[in-house]
Amino acid sequence: MAKRVSVDKWLFTVTLLLVFIGLIMVFSASAVMAKERFGSPYGFLLRQMAWAGAGIVAMLVVMNTDYKKYRQPSVVFTFLGITCLLLIAVFLFHDSHNTHRWIKFGGFSFQPSELAKPALILYLAYFLEARWQHITDWKQVLMPAAAPTVLLALVIVKEPDLGTAIACVAISASVLFVAGMNMRYLGYALAGSLLPLYFLVVRVPWRWARVQAFLDPFKDPQGKGFHVIQSMIAVSTGGLAGLGLMEGKQKLFYLPEPHTDFIYAVTAEELGLWGSVLVVALFGIFLYRGTRIALRTEDMFAKFLATGITAMVVVQALFNISVVLAMMPAKGIPLPFISYGGSSLFITLASVGVLLNITQQTD
Asked: Own/partner pairs for 183-188, CB < 8 Å, 24+ apart?
């Protein structure tokens, strides 16, 4: 029978450390831009601090809420339904940079695609809890399990946001793998996605330009390869100890979105190898503790929740850092806890609250 134990202090501490590092780096990366845009160098920092405070409060509340309460169909399908409606609602708002990703009211903005990740995790945990032993039944179990992921991914691609759609698929695949999905089905899915990916990447000029920049950024150093090269320069000039906080040069209108997608490049330049390795090590600890939680619990609902939430954080971190290090074409995925962005930070912290609650209950 489950008993109450203390919260996983390692996971809790690592999460707060990543948020703290994020606040420091958001200020360092955005101060010049904020001064130009808002008249104050603290513009982006204050907004991020507000979201961080709200997210930590949400994490503490959720951490002390029994995760079993989310097992109810009314909770699962209401959450999934609201997420679907919000993803469709973004198309009613004016586009921003030719994309429909945000719901905006006055000074408030929210990115519904961030909700898709925990919504899919909750659905999969609920659906697979009683069916994981029949995961080989592709018609009755596997297809209904994967269907919401495919549908939400298609809507997100339409925004367009291929990176987040791929992240959703990767997170769902992680949960299905832990549930016992035969790897040949993953192979079938990958084979079936080749043609759509061809049209989504090769036949879309700006995405194909990103792939070309990834393959050979120096072929067009002032055009398609500019951002990749600037990221590599930032990482390489940091050395072992870095140039020091606020001393980075690449964030000064060289790096694109230095406080969001490329904040890890600023971290490497200003904190050096030691600082950037520390960030990777913290995500490594997060992965270890999250995996440990999933392995130790015998409650399948908790196991799938823990797997999905851990994958949600680690997959996005892997994608973001890989892009910064020129190991993957640019995707526009934030670095969890660290990149500027209220929607991502708040939802990720709330999700970690669920993971922390699971750690308090062992079998």
From this structure: 185/138, 185/142
Q: State the distance between the two ends of the chain, measured CA to CA, in whole angstroms.
A: 6
Residue 321: per-residue pLDDT: 96
Closest CA to 285 of 1, 17, 6, 2: 17
Helices then strands (H, E): number in the chain?
A: 12, 4
What does 153-198 look like in DSSP terms, one character per residue? HHHHHHTT-HHHHHHHHHHHHHHHHHTT--HHHHHHHHHHHHHHHI
Instruction: Measure Cα distances from 162 to 58, 273, 325 in Å.
Output: 29, 30, 20
Residue ranges of the chain with per-residue pLDDT less than 50? 1, 363
Query: What's residue 124's pLDDT?
Result: 98
What mean pLDDT, rounded, does the chain reach? 92
Cα separation values, 333 from 37, 38, 73, 317, 336, Å? 23, 25, 31, 8, 9
* Torsion angles phi and psi, residue 96, rounded to 5: -125, 115
Distances (CA, A) of 209 to 156, 160, 216, 225, 309: 21, 16, 10, 9, 32
| Predicted pLDDT at 227 | 86
Angle, vertex CA 313, rays to CA 184 and CA 33, nearest 5:
130
How far apart CA 278 and CA 249 sit, in angstroms, is 21
Which one, of 299, 286, 252, 225, lies nearest residue 35 by Cα? 252
Q: Whole-angstrom Cα distance, residue 271 to residue 25?
A: 10
Here the contacts of 3-7 (C-beta below 8 Å, separation 24 or greater) are 3/361, 3/362, 4/360, 4/361, 5/359, 5/360, 5/361, 5/362, 6/360, 7/63, 7/356, 7/359, 7/360
Query: How far is 186 from 181, CA to CA, in rounded Å?
Result: 8
What pLDDT was estimated at residue 1?
44
Phi, psi of 254 (to 5 degrees): -100, -55
Structure tokens, 309: 């939430």
Q: How many CA atoms lie within 13 A of 222 on its CB side?
A: 0
The CA-CA-CA angle for residues 100, 104, 105, to 5°, reads 160
The pLDDT, as a whole number, for residue 52 is 97
- Is residue 59 within 8 Å of 352, Cβ to Cβ? yes
CB-CB neighbours of 248 under 10 Å: 26
Question: Which residue ranges make up each domain of the chain?
Answer: 3-362
